[in-house]
Specification:
- The protein is an alpha/beta fold and 507 residues long.
- It has 4 domains: 134 residues, 3-Layer(aba) Sandwich (Rossmann fold), CATH 3.40.50.300; 64 residues; 171 residues, Rossmann fold (3-Layer(aba) Sandwich); 75 residues, Orthogonal Bundle (Helicase, Ruva Protein, domain 3).
- Helix content is 50%, strand content 13%.
- It has 24 helices and 14 strands.
Length: 507
């Protein structure tokens, strides 16, 4: 906000006659404009269609109509700042436009200015050269911190520094009034601020997403415990879970840019994208790039709007699912004038240059047809290859899905299940457990290991029907990506070594 107010002050001193304050936060904008007017020692008048003109000495009679208000303002001799509320409803009237054009010189001579405050920019072509647009950003880190600190102090609540920072970061992207309301809701419901209430603050941001049909808000309902295997990827993510903190900036770490998850269908890429948000305690947004591309003329504006919303909510995870469906065959330098090429060019430029803490998680099943520009260093921090789960991961995944079915994994032979389900993806393992549950339920008995084994044997995994394609993908990824799973040959070696050592000690 401070930068915007500095621009306002500079524009007023430079005798700009018309300034357009673009914001939803009328009250906050009014406070800022009043502060600037006081610093410049200029009186502030305000106008609304309900009250008309109101000055330091009170209301001005018969100024509710826009034309009458402008006539009165044109006659002012003293340097004055006039705030016009919701004037975008009237600015397209021919009589209003003519008056604004006629009074421009009078405003410059008296060193007065009109400041339009509105949530939407409506500027007729006749006035484009005369009006300067200033966008009031949503409350930043320092503003939210002051707001939260004042609330805690008033309620006599003490909070640890880390939790305080988490709440402040979670509140970014909301207006001042939205922040006050959600904090009041948390206090009324629980009487304190804990980790459990963070999700409630983040959920409030789902209201913002309704402004864009290309963004979808996801609740933090998936954790890393729901992801079987992928330990190498998990370690990488865990090392960055405090990457958005001020401590990380002070330490000298840059903002993380993003992650590309490439691999076989059904092996946990989308699940991991959802789990990252829970691990890092930040909101998760999914952007539908395919719908953007299909939007044709509205595609570029839709992308810009979605990015603005994501940046206003930062820190945030922006999930781009199955990215190849939108950008396969598109190249930045191909000379294609279609919407896909334009959206792609804007998207990778933003990926390269973005400064805000928006962590992009892109997932893809086949990147061989994707433009090479997308995978160039600097777009993403790392590209991980998510392969079919090995036997150890399959054992873990069976345990996860049996547990989700409200059964004890210890009652099942998960190792035998893992051996039998060779080349099964995580999604296929889940479906085998579900199928076994249906069969046992139909027979009115408890599900057993044998039921799951039967379901496995009746399933033909995708890896068999698409064997050649998966081999080609693995070959492409071998020297270009980082494995999401540890080398199981080493794990098996150390397990065998430990078993042999234990046997020798027993002898």
């Amino acid at each position: 906000m401070e930068h915007t107010l500095q621009e306002l002050s500079l524009s007023l001193r430079a005798h700009y006659p018309y300034l357009y304050f673009l914001t939803w936060e009328e009250e906050r904008a009014t406070r800022g404009i009043q502060r600037v007017a006081d610093e410049l020692e200029r009186p502030l008048m305000s106008w609304s269609v309900v009250q008309g003109l109101v000055g330091p000495k009170g209301p001005v009679q018969d100024t509710a109509e826009p034309e009458a208000a402008l006539d009165h303002i044109q006659g002012l001799k003293k340097s004055t700042v006039v705030l016009l509320k919701d004037f975008h409803h009237y600015i397209e009237r021919p009589t209003v436009q003519r008056r604004l054009r006629d009074m421009r010189r009078a405003l410059v001579d008296s060193q007065s200015a009109l400041v339009f405050v509105s949530p939407s920019a409506v500027i007729p072509a006749e006035l484009e050269k005369d009006i300067v647009i200033l966008e009031l950003p949503l409350p930043g880190l320092k503003e939210v911190a002051r707001l939260f600190h004042a609330l805690l102090k008033g309620e006599g609540i003490e909070l640890g520094l880390d939790l305080f920072e988490h709440f402040v970061k979670a509140s970014l992207g909301l207006t001042e009034e939205e922040i006050k309301r959600v904090y009041s809701k948390v206090l009324l419901r629980s009487g304190s601020f804990t980790e459990d209430q963070l999700a409630e603050v983040i959920a409030e941001k789902s209201q913002i997403i309704r402004r864009s049909r290309f963004l979808e808000f996801h609740d933090l309902s998936t954790s890393m415990t729901d992801v079987g295997g992928l330990e190498n990827l998990k370690v990488w993510l865990d090392a960055r879970k405090n990457c958005f903190s001020e401590k990380a900036r002070t330490y000298g770490l840059p903002q993380p840019r993003g992650l590309f998850l490439l691999g076989v269908q059904g092996c946990g890429k989308s699940l991991t994208a959802k789990a990252v948000a829970d691990l890092w305690k930040v909101p998760l947004l999914r952007i539908d790039v395919g719908a953007l591309v299909l939007g044709e003329a509205a595609a570029e504006e839709g992308l810009h709007r979605a990015i603005r919303i994501a940046e206003s909510m930062a820190p945030v995870i922006l999930w781009v699912d199955e990215i190849e469906k939108a950008f396969a065959g598109v190249s930045e330098g191909a000379g294609d004038s279609g919407s896909a090429a334009r959206v792609f060019g804007n998207f990778i430029t933003w990926l390269q240059e973005k400064k805000s803490p928006v962590f992009v998680v892109a997932t893809g099943n086949d990147v061989r047809n994707l433009p090479p520009e997308l995978l160039r260093k600097g777009r993403f921090d790392e590209i991980f290859w998510v392969d079919l789960p090995d036997i150890h991961e399959r054992e873990t995944i069976f345990g996860i899905h049996i547990q989700k079915a409200n059964r004890n994994p210890a009652d099942f032979d998960c190792w035998e299940l893992a051996e039998t389900a060779e080349r099964f993806s995580g999604a296929e393992i889940e479906q085998a457990v579900v199928e076994a549950m249906f069969q046992a339920f139909a027979e009115d008995r408890e599900v057993e290991t044998l039921d799951i084994l039967r379901a496995i044997r009746q399933t033909v995994p995708l890896a068999r029907t698409m064997d050649q394609r998966i081999k080609e993908l693995k070959e492409w990824a071998r020297d270009r990506t980082r494995p999401a799973t540890y080398d199981t040959r080493r794990i098996d070696f150390f397990r065998n070594w430990e078993a042999a050592s234990a046997a020798n000690e027993a002898d």
